[in-house]
Amino acid sequence: MTSHTWWLLLILTVAIAALIFLINSRLRVHPFVALVVVTVGTGLAAGEPVADLVGSIEDGAGGTLGDVGVTLALGAMLGRLLSDSGATDALAHALVDRSTDRRLPWLVGAAAFVIGVPMFFEVGLIVLLPLIFSVARRMEAQGGTKGSPYVLLGVPAIASLSTLHGMLPPHPGPLTAMTGLHADLGLTMLVGLVCAIPTVILAGPVYARWIAPRLADVRPDAALVAQFTGAGPAGPGDRGDDGTATASRPRVPTALAVVAVLVPVVLMLLRTLAETVLDESSAVRSALTFAGEPLMAMLAGLLFALGVTAVRTGRPGEEIRGSLTDSLKSIAAILLIIGGGGAFKQVLQDSGIGEAIASAARGAHLNLIVLGWLIALLLSLTTGSATVGIVSATGIIAPLVSGGGLEASLLVVAIGAGSIGLNYVNHAGFWLVKESFGMDLTQAAKTQTVVQTLVSVLGLGMALLLSVFA
Fold it and tell me: How far apart are CA 210 and CA 207, in angstroms?
């Protein structure tokens, strides 16, 4: 490696160390402020032109908030409407009453696996948070759970969503790798499922059972739990403007609440199917692609929930608007932190740090599957984007692949698995998990970072195992 490459690696190491110090030291700098300060310092040290640095920060923050922030806001509103109606609490009650503590993580992981087929990681987690929080609160009330029930249920959801997001078409990253490597869609999906199922089991419910007792004090902010579960001082149910429960008001039936959650899931799934089987000139494909965009799909779910809430509960419009406004207050800090993480990611990318890492990896003499995995891993770490890791690794590996077949499909899975690992402070998903579950950096690393790294390593292991038959 050149001296410049070593310099960029040193800058990345110092930047991450500085970020950890600012947030965890006695200074207790707010994560958003720490991210902005470290981002500026990283860009200057890496030699990014001053005239471009501000633009990188704005593009990174704005792009991330555009992708995740607006959808998160709509998801928070949807969750508040369902919690105010008592529907999520009723659904959690039904799950807890019919299951044991040992079965619940498996059920949540299975639900996340289904939801994760068409949904991005962040969107799927937003959809699942009301269910996770409601079930965890019920488990807290019953007692007897070893460790944090929020960790026990959150880890399987993280494992399922991240595995599908990185390793299985029709998600954009794996689909891009599949196209670039000329892999067969059906074979890639089959290989992806074979690799994904044991990966989700080990990184999800199995790891959750081990880590939950060691993070016993993890609990989300009380206001956020109340928002997603409808748990106020007077108990579950609707709340009036004064914050008191209005148990006499009719509730939204649980079945309709489930439909409201499934509306965005179905729309995204239909989009995926349309892009896979319909011609690009098809008007139906265009309509389904538009309706299945995460933002539009979540908006449709929210509008459905609004209509159901207004009709079935008879809540005044002013009261509903007040609930929606309150739902945004509890996620304001999360939105800022996610934006800061996006700015950090963009500066790392624009300053050339990601390309320096890829250049170093290309010089290594490794198995092709391992090389694709490693390049995607390092690029995802340095740029904060799994998609960037997948696209770049595919471009580097593609000339080395002789053709399609099982090898190409295994490379798609391995590259996707690599893009998931070492998910840390420059990833929007890391901050979403950290702030949603009320964790500090160490706790978030033991959940989000470790789980996604387990998924990454296990995915690589499964791909190498299957390569025996290639």
Answer: 5
